[in-house]
From TrEMBL:
Pathway: Nucleotide-sugar biosynthesis; UDP-alpha-D-glucuronate biosynthesis; UDP-alpha-D-glucuronate from UDP-alpha-D-glucose: step 1/1. Pfam families: UDPG_MGDP_dh (PF00984), UDPG_MGDP_dh_C (PF03720), UDPG_MGDP_dh_N (PF03721). Keywords: NAD, Oxidoreductase. It comes from the Bacteria. InterPro entries: 6-PGluconate_DH-like_C_sf, NAD(P)-bd_dom_sf, UDP-Glc/GDP-Man, UDP-Glc/GDP-Man_DH_C, UDP-Glc/GDP-Man_DH_C_sf, UDP-Glc/GDP-Man_DH_dimer, UDP-Glc/GDP-Man_DH_N, UDPglc_DH_bac. This is UDP-glucose 6-dehydrogenase. It catalyses: UDP-alpha-D-glucose + 2 NAD(+) + H2O = UDP-alpha-D-glucuronate + 2 NADH + 3 H(+). NCBIfam families: NDP-sugDHase (TIGR03026). The keyword rRNA-binding does not apply. Belongs to the UDP-glucose/GDP-mannose dehydrogenase family. Its EC number is 1.1.1.22. SUPFAM superfamilies: 6-phosphogluconate dehydrogenase C-terminal domain-like, NAD(P)-binding Rossmann-fold domains, UDP-glucose/GDP-mannose dehydrogenase C-terminal domain. It is an enzyme of class 1 (oxidoreductase).
Amino acid sequence: MNICVVGTGYVGLVSGVCFSEVGHHVTCVDQDEHKIKQLIAGRSPIYEPGIEELLVKNQKNRRLRFTTNLKEAMDKANLVVIAVGTPANEDGSANLSFIESVAKEIGDHLTSYKVIVTKSTVPVGTGEKIKNWIQEQCGKMAFDVASNPEFLREGTAIYDTMHMERAVLGVESEKAKELLIELHKPFNTNLVITDLATAEMSKYAANAFLATKISFINEVANVCEQLDADVTKVAEVMGLDPRIGSAFLGAGIGYGGSCFPKDTQAFIQMGQSAGYSLKIVPEVEKVNFEQRKRLVMKAKQAFGVEGLRGKQIAVLGLAFKPNTDDMRAAPARDIIPMLTGLGAEVRAYDPVAMQAAVSYLPHITFASSWQEAARDADAVMILTDWKEFKELNLNELKDELASLIVIDGRNLFDPQLMKHHGFYYDSVGRAKIEIEGERYESITYRGSRLHRQKLS
Ligand code: UDX
């Protein structure tokens, strides 16, 4: 098949690369010349494991091309995929201005029948709008509009696309249906064929449900803390019920990223303008934000009456999740300003997201390793569940720290192991490990340098 993908952001680039990998001929278009040059040179503008190998391989075998020229890219294509951004408006609704201008441009260049497929997450009814925008430009030329929302996750985007567990084909004609079935044949996946509105809705419903699962388990965690229960075990028990499923029951500091926060907001707005006020999803959002505040309170509590003023906090992890440099709606962007607002000094380390984080967090310092971040720090705070942190050597961590306080927003360590090592360890939804007697007193009330000497 010959496919044109408009927009080389996460969704567009990953889809384009994967379509070419399974044998389709793909031309990706973007108006950003610099980005296109970079892509032609085999460099990915996004951090995504495995993407550059496929970029190089499929350009070499001529199944994948990049251009800034939409007309030329559309020329031979029977399918045009719209994958441009839909940022949030101030009221949380999805901004469709990029979609509109691309749809009109597609209309301008339409010289033969094509199916125009939307992969961007768009409110229900956008397919109809796209149809009108194209029609206004191309007059009587025949075309179909379809919806094929994307469910990929950042950090595992290539894997998710190559092994997609389902594809939603929102179509209005047999021709469009046949083409989209052919597009997905090499992926050997479950196809759900629907109308446009249902396909568009399914993306919002899926994301809002996953966000709900996360906020739900976070609330369970908060009750567990009050009652000395362990949320990770509770989640394990829940997850073994196939009606619930084990995924997305990881308690922590709430969800971030480019999708959940934006899509839940847009879903609420969409309901409102359709005449129905969603009740669960707004609460999901509230719980999500409260969860960040709770971690800051845990850090404050660790220092007792001294509070956080003047304390050196080593923050490990800035990205909203591991294997990405994406800082969009990252919990770190809420938590770190709360810490500095309480007088703490923050030195942060993230394996890949520091460059992306600088502009959001101008008042902190960055370290080139977790060891450097932890050096002489009064506490460590874990905000992203990078493998590197999960596997860190606790003896080494003890050697670096001035006082042995770990506030873990991602439940990376076994509390009993932390106890054995002598840490004060507070995580999410599990019993807090406190240091008894004199050792705890010394953490709370004495200068940290002094305290370190005392412990070793
Ligand atoms: C999500 C959806 O998973 C994907 O289907 C959709 O297309 C886009 O949005 P993504 O934002 O890349 O993907 O990341 P995801 O892995 O879903 O994680 C989202 C956030 O939830 C992260 O901040 C993560 O840390 C958090 N999370 C996830 C939890 O706090 N607990 C969990 O159990 C799972």
